[in-house]
Design goal:
The complex is a heterodimer of chains A (196) and B (367).
Chain A lengths: L5 H9 L12 H6 L4 H30 L8 H23 L1 H6 L4 H5 L2 H12 L4 H29 L11 H16 L9
Chain B lengths: L1 H28 L5 E6 L3 E6 L4 H7 L18 E6 L14 H5 L2 E3 L9 E4 L8 E12 L4 E10 L10 E6 L9 E6 L9 E7 L5 H9 L5 E8 L10 E7 L3 H13 L6 E7 L8 H10 L3 E7 L11 E2 L2 H8 L6 E7 L1 H13 L7 E5 L2
Parallel strand pairs in B: 1-5, 12-13, 12-16, 13-14, 14-15, 16-17
Antiparallel strand pairs in B: 1-2, 3-4, 3-5, 6-7, 6-11, 7-10, 8-9, 8-11
Helix pairs in contact in B: 7-8
Classes of the chains: A mainly alpha (196), B alpha/beta (367).
Chain lengths: 196, 367
Amino acid sequence: MTEIGWFAIFFSAVFTNNILLTNYLGMCSFLGASKNVKTALGLGSAVIFVMTFTSVLNWLVYHHVLVRLDLVYLRFIVFIIVIAAFVQIVEMIIERVSEALYAALGIFLPLITVNCAILGVSLFMIIREYTLAASFAYGLGSGVGWAVAILAMAGIREKTARSRIPRGLEGAGITLIIAGIMALAFMGFNGMINLN
Amino acid sequence: MLTAFLISVGVMCAITTVLAVLMILADATIANYGDVRITINDSKQITVEGGRHLLATLKDEQIFIPSACGGRGSCGLCKLKILEGAGDPLPTELPWLAPDEQRRKVRLSCQVKVKNPLRIEIPEELFNVKQYEAEVTAIRDLTYDIKEVRLKLLSPAAISFRAGQFVQFEVPPYELSNEPVYRAYSISSDPGKEDEIEMEIRYVPNGICTTYVHRHLKTGDKAVVNGPYGDFYLRDTNRGIVFVAGGSGMAPIKSILHQMLNEGNRRTARYFFGARAVKDLFLLDEMKDFQSKLPDFQFIPALSEPGPGDDWSGEQGLITDVVDRCLETVDNTEAYLCGSPLMIDACIEVLKNKGMPGELIYYDKFA
């Protein structure tokens, strides 16, 4: 894994291998919370934060506990538990420390516990055999990529809210079509860096 | 094989235990807000354990704020003025708060956590709100789809309410719901009788509460209600009164008529009651009784679609048309409307067209 540096990993996670638009992970909150830019920004920042730190935590748990005890098949359930506990504790801390941060970011944290993109990032970093530093870069990059995608979508949806959409396509329908077109656009980045 | 199994179980347990201990520690340290002081209406102070939502905290202090969703932020009823200590409204509250309310520092008490000393305002009448344990003493059919349920209050054993107000009836979990559900019903009984309340409940197909009352509730059952709530009551003036009601909208008006009888009220009153057919009419004897005992009261039932066998010589037509036709004057008159939102909106229209000022029209919409 030494041939690509951590910056390349970060960059590719944001653009060429965007977790949302190439892997279609984390779709539920992407569709649900992309109605306005402010909410999207809050949710996006929360995802960046949680993804970065859970990937590091899960890397440590995986390599120092599961691999050593030959229990890698438990990774799915262990990762989910670690993510859930981490999110809960972070929510408590944010609520205690900053009213403003809690209002902007904290209330989205429970949503994130069940965001499949978070688990996806932890699983990909294991499959791709990243080092700890690379996992950090990958987690951060995937978070930023997810946030970029939901911000772009929220920007578009604020516009479509005022446009005349065929009735059968209103809501989730048009949003999925837009997501598809965005995914096509992001495919343009493909081939710049190959991760797999 | 067995050791591998035991190791995996052991490791899982160890990881979960470590995380659980971490969370318990966090809960006891980070999320521990200690005792917090709440100042209510600048006159009363209470000290509560912090860290929970205001609605639940106040409930433990026996202060009941009306709420229909049980604190999930989906009904928008539990609004309170929080003057200090709660910061800015959370995104989960914003859909329920009009710009004007945000300026007046109105918040949803089910979303605000008690963390810092709070200064809040609670409408005086809510202090009278209590939770009552009661026993069902009678259920009778008023029509084919409306039942009258009478409750005897056990603890507390007496309620003080203004005629026209409503209570929330608690439906325990049963086959249609897996958690307690609350529904609002007007009190139809005499406000002078403090040890019992009566409600009129119309059956709504698949309605959680109405199905419970119509199909499951029996005489002798225990029931829980909280209240009283609402600002639909007879204003103390000397104007003439027009009541308009349909269906179970009868309930608060009946209670108000009891009140008028109790206080020897001499005001002119006309009561227009809308129904489809004869089978939808009820409490006719009681109304006749009020008519003979009150000095100037008339009950005017009107049928919109009398059935083929109905021998009907009274008023006919939509209740709005009947009000329009039969009400000679609205000078020095105020109106009390109770029933479906559709009926109320149409009646307000008619009364305003006749020249009644909007601020003299009081109503209770059954949503």
